[in-house]
Design a protein that fits this description.
By secondary structure, this protein is mainly β. The chain has one domain. The chain is built from two helices and twelve strands, in the order E-E-E-H-E-E-E-E-E-E-E-H-E-E. The chain has a seven-stranded antiparallel β-sheet with strand order 7-1-12-4-5-6-8, with no helix packed on it. Strands 2-3-11-10-9 form a five-stranded antiparallel β-sheet.
Length: 218
Amino acid sequence: MKNLKQILGIGILAVAGLIFVAADHIDAPAVQGGASDITDFYAFQGENTDNMVFVANLQGLLSPAATSAATFDEHVMIEFNIDNTGDNIEDLVIQAVPRQGKMYVIGPVAPSSPGLSSVLDVNSVNDAVFVDITGYGSEARISTKNNISVFAGPRDDPFFMDFAQYSEIIAGNASGFNNPGSDTFAGTNVMSVVVEVPKALIGGTGTINVWVESKRRQ
């Protein structure tokens, strides 16, 4: 699989009134998580410096054989949280929901309420960006609407970790990592959602706090 080098009319998203609750996920790199298991979250300035890019990776340690059958769970919403006032409470959210081979992205919008439970903002469905989920081994599909770009699909896991050497350090058998070391995650894939958003839609005048949650429909 390729690394996350490319960053990224509306259909009806028939999920009105659904409530999602934050999923517990496994962080240990030796454990393969389920469809709601977040492996990593990235936020960075885009190649267009007027934009910010948010990336959520899920379902870590997918082998190439497993990747071809991997899908996003339609009962799981991925929610990017943005605090632009410095109080560590989300002021805006970006909600990503898969439906029938497409990923629908709503926002940035104000959340119905802060915290672990969320309601999908169906009032903004007509403004949502949707993209066909890229299949394994296929060229990346990216959709753009209102200057917001979205990608969803399998990618090579970009995180580098020499887990064997880490275990030796923890056990007291080594004093540090090797250079360059061995990438435990080499050859494994993740399911990624990438959203590129103009900074003007995020608000705030300085530092922002961002985090991501996976939330399962109740």
